[in-house]
Design brief:
Largest sheet: none
Radius of gyration: 28 Å
Order of helices and strands: HHHHHHHHH
Shape: globular
Distance between the termini: 116 Å
Number of helices: 9
Length: 202
Amino acid sequence: MITTPRQPTTTLRPLNISSVLSRAAAVVRWPFTNRRAAPFWLLVRLYVAWVFVQMSVAKIGAGFLTSDPIGEMLKLVANGTIPVPLEFYRGVAGTLVGMGVTPLISHTMPLLELAVALSLATGVLTPLAAAGALLLNINFVLSGIGLLAFDGPYMIAEILMVLAYPVVGVIGFEKLARRILSTVVGTVRPAWQPGRLALRRR
């Protein structure tokens, strides 16, 4: 009688869902936490910075530093001439016009945009600059001055830069800026001398 050896049966291991999810999460987290992703964030920073430089220069050329274009725009928003995505912003526009702060907004806006661009380009306080840029873009869209189709991609890039705060400014001058600031503070601040303090108390 001829018998054939039994073939080993292969058992399929059940798919480990948690392992797959953890690997997928690690892949998603990689560009937001790994320093090797810094060159990518540098390109994103420089692109958004260039856009803000262009917006700042255009506003300066349009007379934002010497007149009140924002006030004129917000008046049109408040009276319904300019359409807005959310109606509540008409009340906000009317309040700003009534408070008389629109000249200050007009004068500071191109300077704020230039500061955002400088921060993104140099890598100094990048997450804070990205958050400020996001607030500016949101206000542009809510006021009807900006368009979601135009500002939307920049808003997404700014949100991603905020989320990538551990690595977004790795390539930059933030460490140098901190050293310069600490040196200046150490030079300006007088050294604490307990002996002199005791004499003054007498």
